[in-house]
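Q: Can I see a sequence and its folded structure?
A: Here is a first one.
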Amino acid sequence: MEKFLKIEELQMTNNMAMPSLHSHPYFEIYFLYEGKRVLFFENKLFEVEAPVVLVVPPHKMHKTEGGKFKRINLYVTANYLDDFQRDVLESLQLSPVRLTAEQAAALLDILKTYETLSPSDKNFPEIQKAKFAYFILTLYTFTRDLEPLVATGSPTASPLVIGAINYMNANYSDDFSLDDLCRELYTSKQTLIYHFKKHLDCSPMHFLLNLRMTKVKELLVTTNDSIEAIADSCGFSSGNYLALIFKRKEGISPGTYRSKSRAYFHTV
C-alpha cells in the first residue's frame, strides 16, 4: 500500500458507536466540532465535549461512542508526513486537546475549503496536501504553548476496568484465563464482565484478544520477527494458531498483512 491522506466528515443525529475496539497502521486525527463523545484509548476512557481534537497514533486500540455529533477525521500514513508534521502529531497523540470556538472555526474553514472538489480532478491531491499542511500548522500554532498537554474531561471507566486493562497491557504475552485475571483483581467473573460490557461493550477476554492482535500487527510491520516468535511474544500458543486467528479476524494472513502494511512506515 502506498502513502495516503484521507479527509472524512461524518454527522450523526442519533447514538453511534464504533463496532469494536480497533487499531490501524496509520495516524487518525479526530476533530469533533459538535456534540459529545466518549473516547477510549490506551487505558483511558474520557467523556469530551466539542470542540476537541485527538490524535490516535498507529497501532493503538481506540473506540468512540455517544449521541449526535459532527466530526471530521483525517487519516494519514507515517510516510506521508514531513518531519515537522510527524513531530506535531506525536506531541499531541493520545491527549484530547480542548479548542476555543474561534480555533475550531478556523480549523473547520481549512478543511471545508474545496470540499466539493472531486477526487478525479487533476488538482485534487495537491489541494488535499496543502489543506493538510495548513491544518497541521494551524493546529501547532494553537497548541504549542500547552505543556504538558492535559486530557480533557474526567475518566468515566471504573477503577476495576482500568485495573484490568493495566494488568493486560503488562502481561498480554502470558497465558492467563478470565479466572486468573479475576483472582489478580480480587473480583468475580460476573462483576468484571458486567463492568467491561458497560464501559467498553465487550468482554475482558475479547479485549485481551484485540490487544494481542494489535501488538501482533505492530510487530509484523516494525520487525522482521518470524510468525512463531511474534506468536510467542504476544500470548498465542503457536504460529499456526496465530495465523488461524489472524485470518479469521482480518481476512488475510499475517504475511500478507506485513507485506501490504510495511509501506506505511520508514522504519522497515
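Q: Show me another, different protein.
A: A second, unrelated one:
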Amino acid sequence: MSNISRQLVLLALGVTAIGAQEAPNAGNWKTWVISSGADHRVPPPPDAAATRGEMEWLRSMTTNPDERTVEQIRYWDAGPPSYRWMEMIARRQSNGESVGTYFARAYAYASMAVYDATVAAQNAKQVYRRPRPEENGLRRRVQVPRGFSYPSEHAATAAAAAVVMAYLVPAEAAYFHSLAEEAGRSRLYAGVEYPSDYAAGMDLGRRVAEQVIAKARLDGSDAVWTGSVPTGPCRWTGANPGNVNGANWKPLLMTTPSEFRPAPPPPCDSPAVQAELAEVRNYPRALTTANLNTNAKALYWQTPEGVFPWAYLTMNRWILEDRLEMDAPRAARAYALLGAAGYDAFIASQDGKFAYWYIRPAQMDPSITPLFPAPNFPSYPSNHSTFSTARAEVMAYLFPERAGLIRAIGKEAGDSRIWAGIHFEMDNQAGVKLGTDVARKFIDWARNDGSQQ
C-alpha cells in the first residue's frame, strides 16, 4: 500500500497520523446509544499502595503460565479487542449457530455496544491517566499497548459483547460470559493491565450493554404480525412470510422505515417486466462446465456466510492486512458503522418488500427452475442487493483504496440472485439504489462523529 493510499484509509477510519494509536480524543467521539463517553464513568483507580499489591499479583501470575493460558493470550491478542467478538458472531452464523432471532440485530447491537464501551473506556483513561504496569522483571507476553491502563478496553469490549449476545441467545449466556472473562483476564496474564483495570472494564462494559439492550427491547422486533398476505395480480403467493415484521422496526438513523422506499415496480404484465422475466428464464443454469462459475457463486451467496457474515470476515482481514489492529477505537468504529448500516438496510428492504408484495419470477413462470428455492418473502427489492450495497459503500468509505474491490463484491452478491433465477433485474437495481441511500446516511454521520479531529 502506498503512503498516500494508506493516508486515505486512515483518514476514513478517523486516524489523523500514520502510526498513531488510540487517539487521545476517542473518548469524545459521538456514541450510538449512551449519550457520551462520560456516561457510566468508573470510579478512580486504586491508590499507590493497592497498586503495589496488584503488581505483586501480576508478577506471580505472569511467571510460569500454563499452555492453555498462553494460548488464550495469543488468541485474544490477535487483533483489536473487537476483532474476536465480531468474528465469533460471523462464524456462528456461517456455521448455522444462533445469533438471535434476526441476524441484523446481532451485528448492530453487539458492535454498537462494543463501540460505545470503547469510547467510554477511552474517556475514563484520559481522565485518570493511569500508566500501564512497567516494573522490571514483569514478563510481558504481548506488545505493551500505547495509552493508559485504566479501565481495560479489552474487558469493556468483552463484557459489552457478551452481555448483548447473552440477551440475544439466552440459552448460551453462560458461554458468552465465560468468554468475556477469558478475554479480559488474558491481558492480566499478558502482564499489560492490572486486576483493577480488568474489574473496572468489565463493570463498564456490562453497564453500557444494558443500555444497548434497553434500546433493543424497544425496536419492535418482538411484535407479532397480525396481517394477511394480499392477493391479486402480480402479488407474491405464500404463507408465513419471513421478516414481515422488519418493515415496522425502529431504525437507527433513518427517520422512518420508508424514508428511502423504492418507487413502485411496474405491472408484471408490462413489456419491461416480461422482458426481464425472459432474461431470468433464459439465463444458463444447467449444471455444465460452462456454467460452473456463476452457479458456484450463486450458491455461495445463498450460504449462511454469503447472506450476511461475509462483510465482517472481509473487514477482519483488511484490518489486519492494513496493520490497524492496534487501534481499538477506530476498529470498533468501523465494525459499528458496518453493523448499524446493515441494520437499517434490513429494515428498509423489508419495508419495500411488504409495501409492494411483488411476485417472484418462478411464481410468474413455473417453467423457471431456480438453483435453489427462493426465500419465503416477496421479490422487490432484493435483500441481497440492498444489504450488500449498503455495507459495501460503508466499507468503501472506510477503506477507500479497496473501494473498487468491495463494490465489485457487493455487485456480485446482487447479480447472483439473477443467476440463481430468484429475482428480476429490477429487484436488483432497486436494492442497489436503496442500499446506496441508506449507506450515505451512515457515512454522513461518520464524517461528523469527531474521529477526524
